[in-house]
Amino acid sequence: MWDYSEKVKDHFFHPRNVGEIENPDAVGEVGSLACGDALKLMLKLDKSGHIIDVKFKTFGCGSAIASASALTEMIMGKTIDEAAKITDNDIAEYLNGLPEQKMHCSVMGREALEAAIANYRGQKIDKPIEEGTIVCKCFGVTDNKIAHAVREHKLTTIEQVTNYCKAGGGCRSCHPQIQAILDEIWQKEKEKAMFMQAKKSGKKLTNIQKMKLVQETIERDIRPILQADGGDIELIDVDGDRVMVSFRGGCVECPSSKVTLKSTVEARLREFVTDTLIVEEVTS
224-276 pLDDT, tens per residue? Predict the structure, then answer.
């Protein structure tokens, strides 16, 4: 049996803020009935941007109900920016812990909040982690979503992956693919650690090592940030310490793209590759 805290039980048996808001200022919907979990979160804000009412409707287990109920209490009275800082771990901690097998419930709460905030801000709800190749057919989980969960929560086993995103929790035929994703991610992390150690020791990277590390840093630490706001980036070439990139998607016409080029792209490449890199935007 799973060990539920008294607070989880309280929010399950006496959920707060259940229902719907007439003419809500923001709506976030995640999950699906076919996969066994779904959550709709509705927000009402005052003129100063504070959340003055929040309601939810969910289909799921007791932990899903408790997580959604707790989330509504956590964000009530907060500004959108303050609410945006809440993580799935925060929800679990607010409930005095969730069983590891039920962490995907707090993840669903955070995703619904992210969707509602994007809706309020008039942003396109771009979910690159939902795209990709379906790995777990039972729950419709893609390779990108699994990889995102692995990196975000430092997951190392198939069981942990199932706990956080449900992948592998059905027929289990996808377990070899999940293991392959785990192996690939942590092998790259191992290589990254080796490169970082070489950097600290002052050992000069070869051109091949530098190009490989630049590409891996873009894929792991830069592209997800840009994709979250509807943008993207492509590595065009590396010539010595010059790194040439081209923005894609929403980044192309973004007035802040030049700032992003230096504060995000160049800063992270200098952090993880070498501090002598200069990043340039080129058209292609």
Answer: 888 877 889 999 999 989 999 999 988 888 888 888 999 999 998 988 888 88
Q: Verify whether residue 165 is a known catalytic residue.
A: no
Q: Which domain holds residue 144?
A: 128-198
Residues 105 and 28 in one domain: yes
Catalytic residue among 35, 61, 138, 254: 35
Residue 115 confidence (pLDDT) above 70: yes
| Same domain (yes/no): 212, 236 | yes
Catalytic member of 61, 105, 138, 174? 105
Return d(Cα 225, Cα 254) in angstroms, integer: 14
Its pTM stands at 0.63
Of 62, 115, 55, 112, nearest to 88 by C-alpha is 112
Catalytic residue list contains 174: no
Same domain, yes or no: 159 and 244: no
